[in-house]
Specification:
Jelly Rolls, two-stranded antiparallel sheet
Amino acid sequence: MRSAFVLLGWLIAGFAWAQQPPLPAVDLTVGMYRIHAEVANDMGSRMQGLMFRKSMPQSAGMLFVFEDSAAQCMWMKNTLIPLSVAFVDAMGAIVNIADMQPQTEDSHCAERPVRYALEMNKGWFAQRGIRPGTKLGGLEAFAPR
């Protein structure tokens, strides 16, 4: 009987995650492009990320904000859409970009310490010629004080 309640709890949690409401958002710029990014800036929202979502608008993304600059890695467990992630340093410069396949547990890591990670639909950065060294605008609200 107890296992049935545990299973029911996991099913309800999975349904709730599948229906997760959008997080608070910020408008960012990269080159001449605008991005409307949901902000994952605490452990819970960073762990959840874009899990269980079936789609994301083309100019939308998710900005992961970390407390400190450090070596950060991302994975795609329970993430249904293919994504590209740009790892961004504390000054707003893209360090490296990685393409990620849905529903995998492969680690995709920053090449040096970063404070942010920006996930977009797979290929978004490449299609716009955005490369490492490009600056991200709109991060001022998240700068350490």
